[in-house]
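Do me a favour: review this protein, sequence plus C-alpha cells, and tell me how the chain folds. Record follows.
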Amino acid sequence: MTTHTPTLTATFSDPDAGDTGKITFQLCSNSDCSSVIGNYDSGNTSNNHNASVVAPTLSNGTYYWRAMSTDNAGNTSSYSGIRSFIVNAP
C-alpha cells in the first residue's frame, strides 16, 4: 500500500498588524467535514505569514481540510471554506 504525508498551508491574517498566532488545520474524510480525521496546530507565526503542518500518513483517496486561526489573545476566526486534495500514487 502506498501512503503519503501531504503538507497543508494557510496564511495567518489578523486586523491587528502586530499580532501573532497559529492556524488549526482540520483534516476530514468527507466533504462537509463531519468526519474529522484530526486537528493539527501550526507553530506560532507572524501576521500575514504562512503556517503549515504535515498531515499524518494517508492512503490513496480524497481528503478534505479547512483552517481556523487563533491570535495570541485567544481570539479565533471561523473555519475557512473546505478544500480537497487527492492522494493517488501508484
